[in-house]
Design a protein that fits this description.
The complex is a heterodimer of chains A (223) and B (919).
Chain A (H helix, E strand, L loop, with lengths): L1 H10 L1 H8 L6 E7 L9 E8 L7 E5 L1 E2 L1 H12 L3 E10 L2 E12 H6 L3 E8 L5 E8 L12 E2 L1 E8 L1 E2 L5 H21 L4 H22 L1 H8 L1
Parallel strand pairs in A: 7-10
Antiparallel strand pairs in A: 1-2, 1-5, 2-3, 4-9, 5-6, 7-8
Chain B lengths: L1 H31 L15 E4 L4 E7 L6 E6 L3 E6 L5 E6 L8 E6 L3 E6 L3 E6 L6 E7 L11 E5 L2 E8 L3 E8 L5 E9 L8 E4 L2 E6 L6 E6 L7 E5 L13 E3 L8 E4 L3 E6 L2 E8 L6 E7 L2 E10 L3 E8 L11 E3 L8 E9 L5 E8 L4 E6 L4 E6 L5 E8 L4 H10 L1 H7 L3 H27 L18 E7 L3 E6 L5 E6 L3 E12 L9 E8 L5 E6 L6 E8 L4 E10 L5 E7 L4 E4 L10 E6 L5 E9 L4 E10 L7 E7 L10 E3 L5 E4 L5 E10 L3 E10 L5 E8 L1 E10 L2 E8 L4 E12 L20 E9 L3 E6 L10 E6 L4 E5 L41 E8 L6 E7 L1 E7 L14 H31 L1
Antiparallel strand pairs in B: 1-59, 2-3, 3-4, 4-5, 6-7, 7-8, 8-9, 10-11, 11-12, 12-13, 14-15, 15-16, 16-17, 18-19, 19-20, 20-21, 22-23, 23-24, 24-25, 26-27, 27-28, 28-29, 30-31, 31-32, 32-33, 34-35, 35-36, 36-37, 38-39, 39-40, 41-42, 42-43, 44-47, 45-46, 46-52, 47-48, 48-49, 50-51, 51-52, 52-53, ...
The chains are: A alpha+beta (223), B mainly beta (919).
Amino acid sequence: MYFQSFAVTSLLVLFNYAACIDYDGWLNIKIEHSLNCGTEKYCSRGNIALKSIRAGAAVIDQIQFNKQHIDQLKSLADIDSFYTIKTIVTSADNSKGTEFYSSVKAKAFLDNGLSDVINAWVLPNGAVIAVSFQVTNSSQPLPNKSSNKINSNFYLRYVEQAPVPDTATYIQKLEREREAREKGDVKDNKSFLAKYWMYIVPIAIFVMISGASNPEPAAQGGR
Amino acid sequence: MGLLSIYFKSNFLGLLKCLNKLNWFIVFFSLINLSVCIYEDQIGKFDWRQTYVGRIKFSQFDTVSTAKKIIVATEENVLAALNLKTGQVVWRHVFESASTGNIQLLAITDKVVTVSGANPYLVRGWDSATGVLQWEWSLSLENDDQSDFSEWWVQNDLLIHMLPVFGSHLEVSMYHLATGQNRGYTSKLPASWARDSSCVVTPPYYTCISGEKGSQQLISLDVTSQAVQLITRPLSEYVNLETYDGGIRAVDGSSVIPAFTIEDKKIIMIKNNKFEMLTTNVGDASASVALIDIANGPVVLQAWMDDNQGFTMTAHSVATGAELPELRVTDRNLKLPDPEVSSAVCTKSNREQLVCRVLFNCGDDSMHLMQQGGRVLWSREEALANVVAIEFVELPVSDLDAAIESEFDQKEAAKMYSSIWAAFSRRLQTQFTQLQTLIQSIQRGEGLEEDAPSALVRDYFGLHKIIVLVTDVGKIFGMDNLSGAILWQYYEADLDTEGVVVFTRRTARHPPNDAYLTVVGKQEGTGNGLIISLNPITGTLIGERLLKLDVQLLQCTLLHRPDNEKLHALILLDKEENVQVLPRSAAPLVENMFMYVAERNTARVQGYALVFNGQEVEAIRTWLIQLGGAAGARIVRALAKPPAERVHSPGRVLPDRSVLYKYVNPNLVLFVTEGPDPVHKDVVVATCVDAASGAIVAAQVHRRARALPHAVHTEHYLAYLYYNDKHRRTEIATLELYEGKTRWLPAGAAFSSLSSERAPSVERQAFILSAAPTAAATTVTERSLTDKHVLLALSSGAVVEVPWVYLEARRGGSGEEGVVLPAHAPELPLSGDARLNYNRTLARPAAIHAAPAGLESTSLVLTTGLDLFYTRVAPSKTFDLLKDDFDYYLITVVLAGLIVATYSTKYFASRKMLKQAWK
């Protein structure tokens, strides 16, 4: 059983993701930010809707930034402050919604032409544990238009199942080794020379050397 | 060759015989020579162990046996015998730490008798000389909810168990002490006057204050007598009922006379079935009162601690009320906070002199044995049985070394000695002082050698340090790491040490500024912040001294950048999300600081960016994640990297000569959470969170598992322990984070959490641990050149060193530079020689702390728990140190021989040349 699941993990990554999720359902991520909101603290920036967590395909719908948005972002960038995004995640069994916050440096967001990466991490039971925003390092200058589109890439990340101590393959390996040893005991009928040549050769060399050097003192004695 | 064969032929049989004999010798010696991981003569050379018993619950002088001992039963569920002369542990039994090990009674007859547990109870008899268990029987009560109110005592070889049912009756049972045989019945004595809050047991009497306010009665009953005889007196006879607040307390100590105090003022004893008020009043509201029996009759012993007058002990005769002057002690310098007379014994010596021994149990968990006249024979600091935080502190260099160091300090030298002459004169000056100290040391050496055995200055290898230990009770100790001796202690009764943290804010490397250590804890009761700043070398308060904040703290950290005085500022985030910087002048230095606050029970983690806005530092909440999702989970462990950690190499060389770069993110925090799951019962989720940006770097989930609060996290790897519910075993999961075969950032570029959107590759593995771990840590060395080993403390009392290669995900192949890694096995080997504490078993190891030594190869390790064990480990062997048994003699002889041989051959060669020239 272990071996099976191990094979699944190693071979079919995509399927593995699907296998990780015990639960399937819809997911809705409401994105809010605090730019150009008037009196309220946070106002809507857009929405990400997923039909199925298992499939992971998302529909991203976001507003376009107008001049006020950009101006406020620029004033944040001047003091090197953060652009904070609030997300509210709702799903079939969590209609109340879970709140998350994430921030990027306003300056980096502007410099990269309002493009960001959104990662949402999902537990196997379908619960979202984090929605984090990061700026992609694309270095696109901000197009000088009255309205700007936000370039968001959304990734649904699954919390993978941790590996378990791999006992099955280890036992198999041990058994294979044992079998090999048993077979080896029966089959080891190599010739004496083939088995012990590594001991015989040095002795032979030693004998040869001493044999070669022995006559010399005899010759000297003869002189 | 020919000669050799001749020799062999004639002696071949002899040789075989000889080998045969040797065989037996080998077997024989292998039996004696048990394999140990250090040489026998090295035992105790680099390590020490201190055994503790915990705060005293009961104590009794063992006057029955010949070897004088004190038997103690403690709050830590330990039964031990202490040597009366030295205070050392003679024998010790550590019971279960749960309620099943609670000691309810300690009595000494001819055996030491204990009652332990909580329904069922175990009654055991121990031999007082050896501590060997003699007999044991168990007892379970039918009435389980009431059993907590049980009272036990021993009377005439009978164990008496009394269970009050408040407002109704008392159930009294008697058992034969050694066998547990019941006398046949449980007597129920009517006692409708018994109240929960106002009753005391003074064997064999059960006394209550009962009745309406204004007309209270003092009612007492001998529960062991056959006939029910109530002793009733109106309370107004003893105290003024107008001011009476309901206080009634049995006297301290294991007294033989039934007595109690009312309102902490009057002492009343029961004699001949009558209340008898003593003429002696309680000396101080906080005094501990005990009645002891001495030759001239019973004596009231009182002891208390006063802020102005210091420690006071008085003794009055019960019969006459006269004071015994020989037992009076007043000592202004003796500091025994909240002393309690735990037990006392007095005998008359041959010369009609009183010889008294009083064991005091103090509010700081220390115990002191005092004799008459106020001399403290020995003290035991039992607070050390509950250490909650540890810090290793470097010692300062000697004054002379400091002068030399400052001379060669590049920056300072450039500032001060611009000219060559200034530098020269400075050099002369230092050498003169060096000469002076040399002469002084010679003079002192001729005189008396009574100086401290080792002065508190840094040694050459940096092995000598001071360990600062913060204990549960609020006492802070400074301990010499080489000897284990306590150098200083500081007790703050107001310190609540739950979640206490210790920071070294300035090391001793910056003379003339002293080392600076800060303990951040809570105040008892209010939970507001309490900050203690002290000099870790001397234990004196410095800087902010004792600072009591009027707000609760959420998080605290150190500013990574030191100020002008080389002091790292303390940054505190309080409940209202305000930031305090101590000292205030360091506020402009705050830049790029981030903090996280994790709520243990909801698994909500919030991140803050700290920004200096010109006047003050403010915290902006930048991120929030919910590690349990909407359902909620519990954070079992949150573990960041050790501060100021060094990483020696940014990558690992693979066998094919390519480099695998490590993902070294200094802001990474590991969270291990545990939560319920509809399908898999309990799940454990391990999440690696970047604490600056709030991004999750890696996460994995274990199904049907329960989390354990043990984890390690250094460099690019993490490991944590969990209990696998499915297979019923403990497992260790490891994670290694790599950037890949190419670097993300150019060499030397600073890592930024806010501008990294790439995810590292994660290598995972899990191993079975065939033991129950109680703590985990990694070795730490000065420059991280040395291998890292994981240290695991096991419930069996062992501390085991596991090399990281055994935990690596890529086991089985070949590792760095072709080093063959151990073959893959699902179970982690815990071999006998990997055990750091060889045969010294540690009771209840609770935490391991490792600190670097000055030597790169060595790491200093302290294990705390009921015992303290200190040792040093060298994960890559002591490559920078000669072995302990290095043969200096042999190498000198060989060297001298070589020199002689060189010169003699030179001489002979020249002679030969000369001869040849003459031929």
